[in-house]
Design brief:
Elements lengths: L2 H19 L5 E6 L7 H17 L2 E6 L14 H15 L7 E4 L4 H5 L1 H5 L4 H5 L2 H9 L7 H15 L5 E4 L4 H18 L7 E4 L27 H9 L17 H14 L3 H8 L3 H28 L2 H29 L5
Parallel strand pairs: 1-2, 2-3, 4-5
Bound molecules: tryptophan (TRP).
């Protein structure tokens, strides 16, 4: 484990104590690229955590990172439709539109304008050694790397700082971006005066869920169980999931990643310990395991899916929630940009 990761985990534990004492001191921002339906990996990795923070009293901003989709594709496919689907997913899991703000990059000009001064605060070598960006470049399906690929972490700093968020719940891969955001905030404050908080990353405790093919669960790999999947679709996906040749079911993530990920999924859904779940299935083998996982997922998500279907019945509703969220984000972005201009001596 790297030193950065260990430090982030220690810091996250301290932050959890502060959250338990008084969550209202935190403004949380996080988001997702609208590239397709949100899935169970998102849910247990981050979505559930957001709702927990909201319900504990933190201010929650949820970003539909539509401009970020442009990093490695020529154009986003039906961005409007995907964004509305994403809003429905957020609402179904419990993001409350009267307390939290759901908004999109493209609707908040002031947020995007922060990139310009922010870019002046980072060096090209800093941008090119970002490990997450390097990894994305290595896996990119484009023949050449766009300028946005190198600069999107600075854009992400603008996402976080435009609303002065001080807490960013993320997975490990996003740590370099939060670190960059902290640098940008510090350097801006040093150069122009105190405007921004220096935000903390909050690592989620949930372990990584694998997709049905044994690789990381991902929208683009086609191995994901969507939050909005029906009970039948869920059963079919889980029936097709990879297991291994040992018939006795056990929980051993290092040696048996696929079987263990299925056990973990059932355990997460039922709020149980994975070892106990595996012991119970034991000699029942893969068929019994898959039946148990399917039942656990379908039971856990039945209310979410029902709520989503109900909300989707009124097509105007999700759009209105998004519009109102964008209006609120715009007002906040304008105020911050005003402060930034004043600090820079550029209020005319
Ligand atoms: N990069 C994040 C992802 O791919 C999405 C994102 C955009 C984000 N802006 C953010 C996450 C700001 C946290 C904070 O999942």
């Amino acid at each position: 484990m790297t030193a950065t990761l260990t430090a982030a985990m220690t810091r996250s534990a301290a932050l959890e104590q502060m959250i338990a004492r008084d969550a209202s001191q935190f403004r949380v921002l996080t988001g997702d690229r609208p590239t397709g339906p949100l899935h169970l990996g998102h849910y247990f990795g981050t979505l559930q955590n957001r709702v927990r923070l909201q319900d504990a009293g933190a201010g929650l901003f949820v970003l539909i990172a539509d401009y970020q989709v442009l990093i490695d594709r020529d154009r986003a496919e039906s961005p409007g439709e995907v964004a509305i689907g994403q809003v429905l997913d957020y609402l179904a899991i419990g993001v409350a539109p009267d307390r939290s703000v759901i908004f999109a990059h493209s609707a908040v000009p002031a947020l995007n304008q922060l990139i310009l001064p922010f870019l002046s605060l980072v060096s090209v070598p800093e941008l090119s050694r970002n490990p997450t960006v390097k990894d994305e470049i290595a896996h990119s399906r484009q023949s050449s790397v766009s300028g946005l690929m190198f600069t999107y972490p600075v854009h992400q700093a603008a996402d976080i700082l435009f609303c002065k968020a001080n807490l960013v719940p993320v997975g490990q891969d996003q740590l370099p971006h939060v670190e960059l955001t902290r640098q940008v905030a510090r350097r801006f404050n040093e150069r122009y005066g105190p405007v921004f908080p220096v935000p903390d990353a909050l690592l989620s405790a949930a372990p990584l869920l694998l997709g049905t093919d044994g690789a990381k669960m991902s929208k683009s790999r086609g191995n994901a169980i969507a939050l909005r999947a029906t009970a039948d679709q869920t059963a079919r996906l889980i029936r097709g999931a990879k297991t291994d040749s040992i018939s006795h079911v056990s929980y051993d993530p290092a040696a048996r990643p696929q079987v263990s990920s299925l056990v973990l999924l059932a355990a997460l859904c039922a709020g149980r310990d994975p070892v106990a779940v595996a012991d119970e299935i034991g000699g029942g083998g893969a068929a019994r395991l898959k039946a148990a996982v399917t039942e656990a997922v379908n039971e856990r998500f039945a209310p979410v899916r029902a709520r989503r279907a109900e909300l989707a019945g009124d097509p105007g509703y999700a759009r209105q929630v998004l519009r109102e969220g964008c209006d609120r984000a715009r007002a906040i972005g304008d105020a911050t940009l005003g402060e930034v201009r004043a600090a820079m001596g550029m209020s005319y």
